Amino acid sequence: MSKVTIQAPANIAFIKYWGRLDHKLFLPLNNNISMTLSSCTTTTTAELINGPSNMVEVKFLGKEYTQLTSDSINARNIFDQITRIKTLAKLDRSVHVKSENNFPADAGIASSASGFAALTGVLLLVYGLHALYEDKKEFSRQVRLCGSGSAVRSVYGGFVEMFAGHDHESSYANQVADEHHWDLVDIVAIVNADKKKISSSEGHELAETSPLLTARIEHTKKQFPIVRDAIVNKDFQTLGEALELESTSMHAVMMTQNPPAFYWGPGSISIMNQIRELREQKGILAYTTFDAGANAHVICQKKDAATIEHLMQKNPFVKSTIYNEPAPGAHEVSNHLF
Length: 338
Ligand code: DP6
Known about the structure:
By secondary structure, the chain is of the alpha+beta class. It folds into two domains: about 5-180, 2-Layer Sandwich (Ribosomal Protein S5, domain 2), CATH 3.30.230; about 185-325, Alpha-Beta Plaits, CATH 3.30.70. Helices cover about 40% and strands about 25% of the residues. The chain is built from ten helices and 14 strands. The protein has helices at about 75-90, 110-125, 130-135, 135-145, 150-155, 200-205, 215-230, 235-255, 265-280, 300-315, and strands at about 5-15, 20, 25-30, 30-50, 55-60, 65, 95-100, 160, 175, 185-190, 285-290, 295-300, 320-325, 330. The strands form three sheets. Strands 1, 4, 5, 6, 7, 8, 9 and 14 form an eight-stranded mixed beta sheet that branches. It starts with a strand and ends in a 6-residue tail after the last strand. Ligand DP6 binds near residues 17, 110, 148, 149 and 150.
């Protein structure tokens, strides 16, 4: 029986997705855009097997493989995605999936973006849905149906937009520029390795309770073309100012939800201040953005990356850093995991 292996990157959003138009089709409320991350990838191998049940094994850097049962939200989403693609292929066969992340589980980096992009890719291929895999737009729609919006953007490399759309057909990802376009760097500064208290799935539902949500969504409509153009034109200052404001805007919604979600901690605020001071006092351009967590993503130009990473490592709140450049999107590799 033939095995298929795919490697997919995580990504960091410059215009973020928080809140859904449709919770069944997982349609976001606003167009969003991100950069893929070279040092945060998932490699996944799959093979069809005989027998009544699927087997899914997952491993993070420095940990042993664990066999998943369908009792956590992400694991349920994995088993649901297997069932969905199996049904789509009209092929009643079980599958063995083995998946490895090259970043630690306790780094506080969402593994779902890289994980679900790689998973969907291998499933489409082992179940014989090659046309859906080859058509990247369609591949990205299939990724969306497993519930991780960020994973939709990991289908492509480099800089990627996701159109919110209004139905299944109109909501998909598109590449704005490939990984060679611009040598930007994302230095992830780990300040807190705790599991997030409110998952993104819960958060997308709670966003509706924030009195600031409508204003934020209107604002993203204005900011999206500014960020997109800044990427295309490699205008770092415009991109940086927009992405920092955007992160704060999303966190303002998070903090005003009911119940509220405060993801930032003292370390997050310390890094925000440190980076602002760096701009004001040394004229070095760098900007911070945060997903649903306390860890900072410091976006800078490659020429300044070593200075900034060194500075981050001296911050007493920072436990470790991860250096990322733009990376290729989900793609097949020949080294199988079993
Ligand atoms: C805050 O539904 O993609 O990262 O699967 O946990 O990544 P995860 O959540 P998802 O929502 C993304 C939330 C976000 C912003 C973003 O990446 O757009």
